[in-house]
Structure formats: structure tokens, C-alpha cells
Amino acid sequence: MPHDIARVSPFAPQRLAEMPPIEGVRLASCEAGIRYRNRDDLMVAVLDPGTTAAGVLTRSKTCSAPVLWCRESLHTGKARILVVNSGNANAFTGKRGQEAVETTAAFAMNATGCSRSEVYLASTGVIGEPLEAGKFRHLLDGLVASARPEAWAEAACAIMTTETSASMSVSAVQAAPRSGPAT
User: What span, in angstroms and rounded, lies between the C-alpha atoms of 3 and 127?
Assistant: First the structure.
């Protein structure tokens, strides 16, 4: 079976969940040619200034360059952009993987006008192949400019690796107002 075409699983949902826009979050995706043709493989989530970030990351001593980057960014607790590529995990790539992360982050900072610590990166896909950030760095300005609050389905498709269909889920909760100072 060609890499570019996969049969959709019979277990795939008949339709995607309808994700409501989230205030302060805008999404965009495009085809960057990272691994496959004729499908989106680059996604950005653009976040409003002042967005708080939290995360749980692997504790593996052999994690990828994007995970190492995010560990550092999480110390500030602020976020303005998340860049996700699919098709290449940028894991076990050594210095070249770190250089790809630095390049991607620099262009993400330029596209949003944010600081280094407000950039988050993720990669999913083949392990052990260096990521060629040059394939998509020129696309980040356009993605940031075209990001929309309702582009959840496109974003879900862009981050697929071995999946044959996108998946999304949504839940709503009512949170009680916080009283008193945060601890």
C-alpha cells in the first residue's frame, strides 16, 4: 500500500465531534511535505498573550528534542504558540534534532512576536530521522496569520501519523469560582 494512501479503519467514527471554539485559541494547518504528500502535516495553535501553560511530559532519559524544549518552556508557565509536525518524531536525532527545534522555535517566535519560553513544539512520526525544519519554516508566518478558532478538524488531521482517521472528543464542565488566594 502506498505511504500516501491508507484505507480508513472500519472502527473510525462516522463523523468527528463538533469542537466549540475556545477563547484565546486559534488553529491552522498545512501540507509541508515532511513525510507524506497530499495531506496536512504541520499544525499551529496560536494562543492569546497571557495564556497559562501546564504540562506532563515523559520522564524518559532518552526523550526527543521537542520534549527537552518543552521542559524548559514549562518553567515560565506561559504560552503563545504550539507547533506540531507529523511524519517525523525528531527523536534519537542528536545535535541535528536540537538544531531543528531551535530553527522551528526561532521562526515561531518571529511569526508571533513572542519570547523563546512561550514556544512549545511537538513532533510525531518516524523515529531516528533528522527533521528538516527548512521544509516548513517559511510556512509559519502564513499559518499564524490564517489561524481560526474553529479549525479543530483540520488540526486533528494534521497531527495524524499512523492513524487512518482523525479523532476528537469534547466534554464540558462547570467549575466553581475560586475564592481566596491561590496556593
Answer: 16
**Residues 112, 153: Cα–Cα separation, whole Å:** 23
Residue reference for cell 523515529? 127
Q: How far apart are CA 98 and CA 135, in angstroms?
A: 16
- How many CB atoms lie under 10 A from the CB of residue 166? 17
Pairing of strands 78-88, 119-126: parallel
Class of domain 25-158 as given by CATH: alpha beta
Exposure string of 104-121, with b = 16+ CB inside 10 Å and e = fewer, is: bbebbbebbebeebbbbb
CA distance 137 to 87: 16
Instruction: Phi first, then psi: give them for residue 48, nearest 5 degrees.
Output: -60, 150
Per-residue pLDDT of 74-106, as tens digits, reads 999 999 999 999 999 999 999 999 999 999 999
Burial class (CB in 10 A: 0-12, 13-18, 19+), 152: buried
Domain boundaries, the chain: 25-158
Q: What is the pTM of this model?
A: 0.86
Are the CB atoms for 34 and 135 separated by under 8 Å? yes
